[in-house]
Amino acid sequence: MNTFYVGNIADFETKADRYLTRSEDYEVLININNETNEKTLDISIKEMIDSMNSLLEKLKTHKAIKDDLYQQLIADPKKVKIPYLYFLPNISNENDISLVPIITSRSSATWKIGKYLNQLLQPFADKNLHSTTFADGTDFIRKLNHYANTERRLRPTTLFCTIKITNFYTLDEHQNMLDVIGYFLHDDLATNKLESLTIQTIRNLLYLFLYNNIFYYKDNIYKCTKGSPNTMALTETLSNIYLSVWQKKILKEIDRNIEFFGRYKDQIFFTWNKSSALELETFIENIREKHQNVRFQKFISTNVQFLNASIENRQGQLYSQVHYDSNKPRYTLPYLSGHSKSAHSDWLRTALIRALCYCTSVDDFQQERIALELTYFINGYSLLFVETHIKHFFNYFHAQTMRYSRIQNSYDKFRQQWFKFVEQLYELSEQLEKFNNNGRLIQFNYIYDFGPRCRSNREFYRLWYHYFQKHPTLSEENSKVILTTKHFHSLNTLFAIDKPPHTTVQQ
């Protein structure tokens, strides 16, 4: 959100120091200022990189990886930067401020290996976990609506259970993580290979990635003992695979023909018709006791919050609306990188779609629409801007009268049209993901303040596909080009300063 945290820096750093002291996820590797260290920092880092490159060379020698992949993954000591740790404040529901650790990862020793492994593992994992995964909150509501109103499986006694994984990025020690990933690949691969790599080779590369993630904070170099940096896409992929194995303990106990189950990253939602809330709580606590490495919070009721939606079972009828965190400002726009006006145009459309999908009641939807309009007015957008976007939203399905309608039946039909449209959007998103996985998604951005942006973009696409219409990789059929705009000035350029590499490493 467009909000700033203002606090005492000494208090903030005390919280950060306390977090690192108590955490079991990191341990001190080297104290930079300790003159009794057996090796200097630069020698220790060089030895770590040499060890990684040596194992890569052995894999190449034994023909486990090809020479081009070896060249792609090898780390150059002159270009490697030690990641650094910083913290962001997070306000809990109890109005208490906790810290969220963020570890930079670009240009680290493990960056190349992590990027390659994610390109290899993520498409395979996404395909196998698709049936139990929510793409986002709107996808969750769409599927829950289908469960309750199309399949009519929601009963008056149905309970809802939500689970929030609190250590999503640091689920287990490295060896256990390697074992779980290995089991997952063995169970779901038809052969012993994923593309050109054997499962053992993938494990070897994962070993290099997991055991060589280091970072610095103040005067210490730390290493990750659980998980990996949360800024690396591979970390999320590994956590998704790990939790897919863990959540089978729940899936084993519920009848998929009766119940509804799904997960979005670190949040799980499922229905329960098997027994009482007390028995469900006992079942969940047994899972906690047997698998203590996965830390989570649970909530069981007929009225729950999940992915910013308030969900309620009203005697077998599904009721839902948008849920707002009372600790966050109500009428603020999200902070979006790039060109704010262009990005906020897209966000308004997305927010209207979300409001329509989330709200089962036409009255709730109209309240959300009014709140969104007020939000844009409060943040300085013109009446023309808001009116243009609101009209476009309703005109898309030729439903201009729905803007002020309070007729529930008409609203239900309008809502179903958007559910179908959202399903088409997910199909397009999957196509983009395939282009991206194959290295055929090309993104350009340019500085933009005002002017005929849409016309300029159309002309760019026309010229691009005219000149590349017969190109083997850049033609319209074989690639996808995305144009985005950005401001020359932003809050990032005004307030943010990139932390330089540690002076020892620079020298």
UniProtKB/TrEMBL annotation:
Domain Helix-turn-helix, residue spans: 332-391
Organism annotation: Rotaria sordida
PANTHER family, alphabetized: REVERSE TRANSCRIPTASE, REVERSE TRANSCRIPTASE DOMAIN-CONTAINING PROTEIN
Lineage, broadest ranks: Eukaryota, Metazoa, Spiralia, Gnathifera, Rotifera
Protein name: Helix-turn-helix domain-containing protein
InterPro entries named among the record's database cross-references: HTH_animal
